[in-house]
Amino acid sequence: MITPFKYAVLALFLAGGTALAASKSPADILQGAPAGDWRAVDPDNTLLMEVGGHGVVIELAPQFAPRHVANIRTLAHEHFFDGLAVVRVQDNFVVQWGDPNAEDTAKARSLGGASGKLPAEFSIPAKNLPIAKLPDPDGWAPVTGFVDGFPVAEDPARNQAWITHCYGVVGAGRDNPIDSSTGAELYAIIGQAPRMLDLNITVVGRVLVGMQYLAALPRGTAAMGMYDKPEQMAPITTARLLADLPPEDRPKLQVLRTDSKTWKALVEARRNPPDAFHVHKANFTNICSLTVPVREGGKP
Amino acid sequence: MITPFKYAVLALFLAGGTALAASKSPADILQGAPAGDWRAVDPDNTLLMEVGGHGVVIELAPQFAPRHVANIRTLAHEHFFDGLAVVRVQDNFVVQWGDPNAEDTAKARSLGGASGKLPAEFSIPAKNLPIAKLPDPDGWAPVTGFVDGFPVAEDPARNQAWITHCYGVVGAGRDNPIDSSTGAELYAIIGQAPRMLDLNITVVGRVLVGMQYLAALPRGTAAMGMYDKPEQMAPITTARLLADLPPEDRPKLQVLRTDSKTWKALVEARRNPPDAFHVHKANFTNICSLTVPVREGGKP
After folding, report:
1. Which A residues, 175 through 234, put their C-beta within 8 Å of a C-beta on chain B?
2. Are A11 and A294 in contact (CB under 8 A)?
3. The complex's ipTM?
């Protein structure tokens, strides 16, 4: 197998914080992080979705898509997603779930108290946004970095900031009209970051826990990865805001603060891995090559 | 759902050539490609691997890793991989198969007529390499483009060229010593391109067919995505060079020539999608955001 050392380092980043004996600098960095470098997730803006028997936790991004997130919170509160399913898995692209008829008013499921019409929320003003900038150029955008754990790009000249389509990022499906998404149908990225979707679709959050289940769902065999038959679809049993769950049923998740020195050190360890395996150190990284650590119950 | 139009375009790229009625420019570009813009795969350097009942086709890259590819060809010829399995699936990183004890001489499976010791083949001379350059900067490398369908980066100042770790690229696992890989254990990339592996490991080829099965294998739950139990492992029934199969059993695969005008037009359509969905055109793309079309039996 490939060197256990290197893999431990990568596993740490990719799994978001499983400390392993053989790992070196990134694990040490995380172990040494003060408690204040971690933040709890907000129960009002975190969704626990049971998909095919697995728990998937999605952190919503009200700062970036206030109207869509408010709608999704209403939908979850009213149990809109219960009984729906994953309807599409396209390899190296997206897993998609919710109401497949969301944009067809004749067939769409009732949105209850949620709104059926929302403005596009593709970007927010970049000015004064507290972004922890990455030192390396991105290509797709003039500036990249992290805002409260979310991967973000900025175009200062246009005063625009937006969440980038990295692995695990969740967006609201839309049709050609830019205001045709409601959050009733959502997708998560399961492959190479499709950055051409940036500024073209409303991003509503990111998966904190459970990508390993979503990304391993069987690919749909119909056009665009759609499932042919209902029995192929992983069912969504429930989708609840943590705030709507009894406190004892809420996952106790913490996210590493991306405005912390710990995160800065982790980024640098990724740019120049401090190990014997990497004989070539790239001295470079990219916004979608980084994963912000998440831990449960105060343990990495 | 997200607009069928946009998805058709993406599906075309990501699935590598399924023409769809709703698709526009990229599909039209491919439809209009002259026969000479496609090339057949070389039966001597293409591997058909049966994994968990699914066919996976890997195109080897002798130009980039002659010694490793020769070794893999010998191993396949001697049925080395038959009865081995997928031993590891780490989410957003790699699926790995072959002999998990490849680097432990006490436990390793006999390599038969293949070599147990090979030099590292991390790069080749860049000078005079016929690369179809991309117009956009990469960040990880000064130059990127395609050589005969393979995603390649170049550093002209160092006269180095190498296959980049994009989705579906296949490499030879190694331990810390750079000359510790033989091809007896291989991995394929199943997530965001781990470009920090570039120039650190010998890349031997890329998956032409079957990524949708490899990437959907259950993630291993032990450290680094290793499987805990043998029964979790998808078995490799056979792995054969196409040249070792009767002609009638060989998949009739063709790869779009990346030195063709058709490919150049497809790249441009990716940089600036000619559709109504993309209200923001990035005017940019990246080496790992492109997938070279593959077709079977002369049909996209």
Report:
1. 175-176, 178, 185, 187, 191-196, 198-201, 211-212, 215-219, 223-226
2. no
3. 0.92
